[in-house]
Structures are given as C-alpha cells and as structure tokens.
Amino acid sequence: MAEPVLELAGVSKSFGALKATDDVSLTLVPGEIHALIGPNGAGKSTLMALVSGRHAPDSGHIAFRGRDVSGLSVAQRARLGLGRSFQVSSLIPEYSARRNVMLALQARQGHSYRMVWPVGRDRSLTEPAQAILARVGLEGRASVPSETLSHGERRLLEIAVALALEPAAFLLDEPMAGMGAEGGRRLTAFLDTLRAEAPILLVEHDMDAVFALADRISVLANGRVIATGSVAEIRADPAVREAYLGEEEGA
Amino acid sequence: MDESRKEFWLNAVLLVGLFATPVIAMMIDEPFYVTLATRVAIFALAAVGLNLALGLGGMVSFGHALYFGLGGYVAGIMAHHAFSGMPMVFGLSGSDQMLAIWPVAMLLSGLVALVVGVLSLRTSGIFFIMITLAFAQMAYYFAIGWPTYGGEDGLPILVRNQFPGLNTLQTWHMFLLAYGALVIALAVFAMLRNARFGAALMAIRQNPERVAAVGISPFGIKLAAFVISGMITGLAGAMMADLNRFVSPSMLSWHVSGELIVICILGGVGRLFGPLAGAAIFVGFEVIFGGLTQHWQFWLGLVLLAVVLFARGGVIGIIAGRERHG
What we know:
The structure holds two protein chains of two kinds.
Chain A: E1 6-15, E2 18-28, E3 33-37, H1 44-52, E4 59-64, E5 67-68, H2 74-80, E6 82-85, H3 97-109, H4 123-135, H5 151-164, E7 169-173, H6 180-194, E8 200-203, H7 207-213, E9 216-221, E10 224-229, H8 231-236, H9 238-248
Parallel strand pairs in A: 3-8, 3-9, 6-7, 7-8
Antiparallel strand pairs in A: 1-2, 1-4, 4-5, 9-10
Helix pairs in contact in A: 3-4, 3-5, 4-5
Chain B: H1 3-27, H2 32-56, H3 65-84, H4 98-120, H5 125-144, E1 155-156, H6 171-194, H7 196-206, H8 208-213, H9 218-244, E2 246-247, H10 254-267, H11 274-290, H12 296-310, H13 314-320
Antiparallel strand pairs in B: 1-2
C-alpha cells in the first residue's frame, strides 16, 4: 500500500468524563475514499474536528503528508493542503458563490494581506473561480449570495470551495446531507471521479453512497474504531451489524 | 435606479455637500458653519477609522477614544514644547508643523492599537468590548492625573499648528485640510475593502471558522485592520485638537468612543460613506436640537433606536439598499 497522506495513531480526546475519541488509528492513502460511519454520537464529528485542527488531541499523533500536525491550527493545516467541507454548510453568507470560491483561491495563492488590487478585477481569481463553479454545475448561480442559494446548491458550493484549495486530501463531512435522491446520485458520481485528484476521508450517513463509493470503511462506535475493511468485509462483520447496520435496517 | 448607482450618487451628494457648506457659509458671511463643516469632516475621518474595524472586521471597539485622544495629545504636547522651547522625552524637540505632528500621531496610535489588539483580539463579543473600553479608560484617568500637560484642565494650543502654504488660523484652511484628509482616508478605505485584504476581513466578520478552514488565520488580518483603524482615528484626533486649539482628557472618555460608534451606525456600518452621513447627522442634531434643549442627545437616542430596530443599514442602507459582493 502506498505511503498514507493522513495517518492517525492512537488518537484520544475526552470532554470531561466522555471519551469522544478513544485510541483511534487510521490511514488515508492516495487514490482512495475512506468512509467513516457509525451511529449518532459515535464520535465522527469529534474525529473530524481533531483531523481539521479545531480540537487538539489529548494523546496520540496526527500526521499529514509525513509531518506531525497535532499542534497546528486549522488555518495552518488548511495551508498544508487539507480541504474540508462542513456538515452544516459554512459559507460566507453575504458573498456570492463566486466570491466564496475566490476567497479559497486567494487563501491558496497567499497574499491575503495585499491591500491594493481590487479582487473583482483580479483574473487570477475570477477565471478559475468560474471554472470551478462550472465543475460542480453552479456556473449559472455565480453571482447569487450564498445565503440565498438553495440547500443543495450550498452543499455543492461547499465542494467547490474545497476544490479551489487543490488539497492533498479532502475531508468531507456529510456532503450528501439533505441533497435529495437525484442530487445525491449526481454528487456520488462526482465524488467518484474526485478521488483521482486527492484521497477523501468521508463521513456520510447515506449508506447507498458509502457502499457505492468507499474503498475502505471504518466503523466508529462509542469513540472507538470497531472495524476497518472493504465494503464486503464491513457488510459481513457481525460486530458491525450489531452496533450499527442492524439498528438501521428498515430505517 | 440600480442600487449601486444610487449609492454612487448619494456618496457624491454627501461629498459635494460637505464641500459646499463652508463655501456658501462664507458667501453669506456665517463663519460658524465653516467650523461646523470642519467638525463634521474630522468626526467623519475618526469614524472612517472605526468603520474599518467595526464595519468591515466586525470588531466592536468601545475604546476608539483612546486613539482620538492620543492623536489630540500628540498635537497638543508637540505644540506645547515648540512654544516653550523645552525638549520632550528623549531630548526630542517639539514641533508646530502639522506635517511632523500627523505622522507621530498616527505612528503612536498604531503602536498602541497593536498592543491593545494583540491583547484583545483573541476575545470576541462583550469581552472584546470591555477590554477595549478598559484600555481607553486607563488612558483617560492617566491624562487626568498627569499634571505636566494640564491634567484635568486640559492643554490649550495657543497658536494653531502650521501647514506649509496655508494659514491654519483661517478656519476655511483648516476645513480644506480636514476635507483632504477625509477624502484620502475614504480612498484608502475603499482600496483596502476591495483588495484581497478586505475580502478576507469582511469574510472573517461573517464566518471566521470558514476563513480559517480555507487557510487564512483570522487573527493577523484582524490585527492589521485594527492597527490601521487606530491610525486613522489618531490622525482625526490631532486635527480636532488643532481645530479646537485645545486638548483635554474628555477626548479620551468613553463618551467619544460611543459617539464614534453612533456615527457609524447612523450612517451605515461598513458602508464607505456611512461615517460621513453619520457625522453630518450627529453634528446636525447637536446644532439644531442643542440650541432648543439641553437634552438633544435624548432625541438622537430615539433616532438611533429607530435605525437599529428598523434600518440596520443606516442612512446609506435606507437609500441605497443592501451592499452586494458580486
């Protein structure tokens, strides 16, 4: 197996008496989609916060592109190439779709202290922003403030912002949430092609999407990884069926 | 009419109107209104500074009197030493040249804003408001207790400081200086807002978590904006001291911090010409209702309440609608 882009080793995080993340080790290797699943409260969100840098682990190490990032801030990890989308759309509400993407492009290029040249006439921002919006199918909505976009469009814009960062790894937190059947299918097809650009750590509740996309699946329960394996292995795993899939049957 | 065009024309009317006021006042021989227009220009300049932190960056500084008063004291103290011939600290001599005073006022204000910013910008909301207020109040009580420069009684500037080619004792010439500084400050504000720096700053106001997630650290951007903000307000303070030919601790008091916030809110927080519209309303109220009743600030308070409740965008927002970021 290739050298992992992202590697967690023995990562733990407690909030008071609650062990939200308990000795988690996992890897993300080039070219793969690694899905994280688990029932509500299993610790998926905490794990994403630890990887993105919003929380610092109590113990254990997080390595990204061969370097220990455990002590780095959210912004520093993003600059190293960690592109994340949020579970609840987190955009700049008053900015148009184009401006949201342009902000990510300007962050990637640096120069956020440049005080003289107007961004609206900066072709190194406007042109790639338009191209990225076209990739996710939002080119016709480029001038609309993100707060007035539909829910599904905001989910797509989240992806576009992550794309603009040209990251070394994507960290996608429930990108399908509330997309609807048709939107979900289109996004699934899109993510399928995206893994060639950079590996994806995917938290997702939509099991159809997870089983269609994932190269590997890790199952979280009570903060621990109880199983890691291919789709077929996870489907057959009795512990997983009990902890998770069994409960969801018929849901 | 398209809203951005409306805003353009409204801005033009404000800018031309401010210039026309002293011209007409001189024609009808009412010099009082020349001083009034100069006050509007200087308050607007101070509020342009605050607007950078408050309007673009969402940093509710309740301590911008610190920079306003600091600028005022720089003008007063340098003039005082130039007059007496005694050296200031480190053996530096005073100066009665505005072109020497202004850079010192801006530099000192910027340095103080840097210290205050480093200590306060990790907090937000009410904590940020209280820390900025605390620093300004510390300076206020320090000025009261410092007898060298007049203490509580303040420090008169016996002869207005000089500007090459102008006779600053003529209020019309003072107006031209204040107006010029305001126009330059507005141009700087527009330039910063439209540049990458402004794009990051305004995004931080709306969603700092998202800005960090794309790889821009909010702290540094906010700090830079806060320092520039303090510098502009400091320059306004130096000019106000010269206009009044007097500087006193009251320039450092929390009333002034509050007035600058009120000016920004009345005019339109974050709007380029919000500070000018707000300062015109503020000074206008002071003159019109101040002559009728001691309690003119009560009526201003009612107007402020109406703006906050019904017209968040202030006067500019009422006329030109919401700002758009294409």
